[in-house]
Specification:
The protein has 199 residues and is mostly helical. The chain has a single domain, classed as Tetracycline Repressor, domain 2, CATH 1.10.357.10. It has 9 helices and no strands. Helix 5 runs antiparallel to helix 9.
C-alpha cells in the first residue's frame, strides 16, 4: 500500500481540526462529539482515529492550531518594523478580534476548565502562554526603554496583564455573550493605549 505524503496527511488532519472549530462554534467543544466532527466533513470515525487518539487529543490539536495562528500574528508584527507600542496595540486588537469568534471562545473556556484537572493540558497551556509572554515582554521592555510608554512598568507583569486580559474577555464572553460588545472593547483598549503612550 503506498504511503501518504506528509503534506497530504497533514492536510487531511487539518480538515478534522477545521471541522472541530465549526462544530465548537455551533454547540461548544464540550458538547461536540467525534461523530459531529466526522459528519461535518463526511469522514469515518476510523479516519478520525487515524489522526487523533481521542477527543481530548483533538482539543490539544485545537490548542496548538490556535497557538500557531497567534504566533504567526506576532511574528508578522515583529517583521513589519513597527514601534513596540504599536506591536502591543495591534496584538491586543488581534486578541480582541479572536475573542469575538464564538468557536475560539468556547474552546478556550473548555481548555481552561480541562487544564484545572488534567496536568498534560495545563502544562501545554502554560508552555504556550509562557512562550507568548516572552515576546510581549520584549516589546514592553523596548517601549519603556524607547520612551514610547508614559510609565515605568515591569515588562513581564505588563505582558502577563495583556495576555490575561485576552483570556479573561474570552471567558467572560463564553459565560455571558450579552455582557459586552467586542467593538466597544476594541475602542476602550485603543483609548487605554493612547493614554499610556508617551506625549
Amino acid at each position: 500500500m503506498p504511503k501518504i505524503h506528509p503534506s497530504v496527511r497533514e492536510g487531511r488532519r487539518q480538515r478534522f481540526i477545521d471541522a472541530a472549530w465549526r462544530c465548537a462554534a455551533r454547540k461548544g467543544f464540550r458538547d461536540t462529539t467525534v461523530d459531529d466532527v466526522c459528519n461535518e466533513i463526511a469522514a469515518s470515525k476510523g479516519a478520525f482515529y487515524g489522526y487523533f487518539a481521542s477527543k481530548r487529543a483533538l482539543l490539544l490539536a485545537l490548542l496548538d492550531d490556535d497557538a500557531a495562528d497567534l504566533d504567526e500574528i506576532m511574528a508578522a508584527l515583529d517583521r513589519r518594523g513597527l514601534t513596540a507600542v504599536e506591536c502591543l496595540r495591534r496584538f491586543t486588537k488581534a486578541m480582541v478580534d479572536r475573542g469575538a469568534d464564538q468557536a475560539r471562545a468556547q474552546v478556550r473556556a473548555d481548555l481552561w476548565a480541562t487544564a484545572l484537572t488534567e496536568p498534560e493540558v495545563r502544562d501545554r497551556v502554560a508552555s504556550l502562554v509562557g512562550h507568548r509572554r516572552v515576546l510581549l515582554r520584549t516589546w514592553v521592555r523596548a517601549a519603556v526603554e524607547n520612551g514610547e510608554l508614559a510609565l515605568d512598568v515591569v515588562p513581564n507583569a505588563f505582558a502577563a496583564v495583556l495576555l490575561a486580559l485576552g483570556d479573561g474577555l474570552m471567558l467572560h464572553n463564553a459565560i455571558d455573550a450579552s455582557g459586552f460588545r467586542w467593538p466597544n472593547i476594541a475602542r476602550a483598549l485603543d483609548e487605554i493605549f493612547a493614554g499610556l503612550a508617551a506625549g
